Amino acid sequence: MKYSVLIRDDDNSKKIAEYIKKNIKYSYDENNPEIVIAIGGDGTLLEAFHKYPNSIVFGLHTGHLGFFANYNPDDIDLLINDINNNTYKTEKIPLLSMLIEEWNGNVYYEDAINEATVLSPVKTLILDVKIDDEILEKFRGTGLCVSTTAGSTAYNKSLHGAVVDHDLVVMQLAEVAGINSNAYRSLGSPLLVSSKRRITLESDMPLELSVSIDNLSYSLKEFKRITFYYQNHFMNMGYHNLEGFIKRIARTFIDSGK
Ligand code: NAP
């Protein structure tokens, strides 16, 4: 068994990482680890997944929000023990897959834990929004965000999207500054769709815009279309005790768990 550690750039996380490295019995391997320990916050965990998509990721949160993290700073020895003695369980977090197509023929396949956004902060975007093959609207505005269930508490929440129970697998489409005039009319509220459907955002001419996927961002010169779908791709998260959904949102957003 090989493991690696990803650390947020702060002294406390670095100190904890040193302690963990001294006590894990497996060999350290940054290239091909089966287990990755993300020490920091949700951002560190997103980074860990995108760097090592096939590994089991353990989140140890050291301050900040830590919505995803299953271990807190009091659980360092528990985490070490779980990994050394194989006493952890794994939770499968559904990933949102997407196909991005450009007019020049480039295609990209990606998976997101939280969401993907299609944004143009300066010039407004005009995009046809389709659910399966049916046209829903012609959107005009800064952009659109399609989030997963797990990502419903991230960017989606800032766009007044609904927080979604982790027992449901859905995609949520939310507008980023939709114009909504008599020329361009869009739904104006977030839309939850079943995981069995596909959401497509497409342009009938090449667009220069940026696509973000969780903590990553890409600039595209000739955007044509992005299609979102679920296909049984998962991120494997290690845990000892899984915090319930209601407790997790109360701790993160309402009362810090007190
Ligand atoms: P960041 O901008 O440095 O941090 C974004 C914040 O979102 C952090 O506080 C992070 O928690 C929190 N977060 C991440 N995933 C979450 C989740 N599923 N539920 C609740 N909170 C969550 O960026 P980053 O750390 O690289 O993370 C990228 C994420 O930032 C994106 O996936 C997107 O969701 C989010 N984002 C949000 C906005 C917005 O709300 N206006 C804008 C851009 C990006 P920690 O403090 O524990 O790291």
Provide a brief overview of the structure.
With 258 residues, this protein is α+β, with helices and mostly antiparallel strands. It folds into two domains: 2-93 and 234-254, Rossmann fold; 96-229, Probable inorganic polyphosphate/atp-NAD kinase, domain 2 (Tumour Suppressor Smad4).
Chart the SSEs and their pairings.
Layout: E1 2-7, H1 11-23, E2 27-28, E3 35-40, H2 42-51, E4 56-61, H3 76-85, E5 89-94, E6 96-102, E7 107-112, E8 115-119, E9 125-131, E10 134-147, H4 155-158, E11 170-178, E12 191-194, E13 199-213, E14 216-229, E15 234-239, H5 245-255
Parallel strand pairs: 1-2, 1-3, 3-4, 4-15
Antiparallel strand pairs: 5-15, 6-7, 6-14, 8-10, 8-13, 9-10, 9-13, 10-11, 11-12, 13-14
The protein binds NADP nicotinamide-adenine-dinucleotide phosphate (NAP).
NADP nicotinamide-adenine-dinucleotide phosphate binds at residues 41-43, 46, 64-68, 114-115, 150-151, 153-155, 158, 214-215.
